[in-house]
Specification:
By secondary structure, the chain is an alpha+beta fold. Helix content is 43%, strand content 12%. The radius of gyration is 28 Å and the shape is elongated.
């Protein structure tokens, strides 16, 4: 005995038809600019996956083998990929000094520095100043003289302060103020910062 032919599911067919019709209608009325933007986002995502380049960086005495986009700033690499969040993102335009690090002993605004250009150089962040649990003399001086309030600018201030002494620009209060002028403290702790730098300079400690 032959089985009865299976009856078409009219409800399911109707739902499928409505879904397809709705999708086609939506695409028909979607502005071309939106479609182009979606395609551009997809192209950018694909390009980003292929544009990454290998780089080896020496950060705080540790070697890192990384694959990064050429446009990645050193600041974003430190914070977003390596978890070294002591270096702060302030203005992101190189004007406040909160992102200051040392590259081969010189102070640099990491927000204006491409990470891929630092291969073969020694990078030091605020996390690399201390020797284990022993604070750097400049860190101790900032604590002693209360050289911070909210503390957001403090890592950059300390990194610049160390460089200021190393560069030989800490012989007077006016000189310190001039060569620390690239670091902004919105809390106004400048006099205490100057006092901390003067103590380290006067103490003859190795910085």
């Amino acid at each position: 005995m032959n089985p009865e032919p299976e009856q078409p599911n009219h409800d399911e067919a109707r739902r499928t038809f409505l879904k397809q019709s709705s999708l086609l209608t939506a695409l028909a009325f979607t502005p071309g600019s939106v479609l182009k933007a979606a395609a551009a986002d997809l192209d950018e995502s694909i390009a980003a996956a292929f544009e990454k380049v290998p780089v080896r960086l020496d950060i705080n005495g540790h070697k890192h083998k990384l694959s990064i986009e050429p446009r990645t700033t050193l600041l974003d690499l430190l914070r977003e990929q390596l978890g070294l969040t002591g270096t702060k993102k302030g203005c992101d335009y190189g004007q406040c000094g909160a992102c200051t690090v040392h590259i081969d002993g010189k102070r640099v605004n990491s927000c204006l520095t491409f990470a891929v250009m630092q291969e073969g150089k020694e990078i030091t962040t605020i996390e690399g100043l201390a020797d284990g649990d022993k604070l750097h003399p400049m860190q101790e001086a900032f604590i002693k003289h209360d050289g911070f309030q909210c503390g957001y600018c403090t890592p950059g201030q300390i990194m610049s302060a160390v460089a200021c002494v190393r560069e030989g620009h800490a012989d007077s209060e006016d000189e310190i103020r001039e060569f620390m002028s690239g670091n902004i403290c919105r809390c106004g702790a400048y006099s205490n910062i100057v006092a901390a730098i003067q103590e380290v300079k006067g103490g003859g400690q190795k910085v």
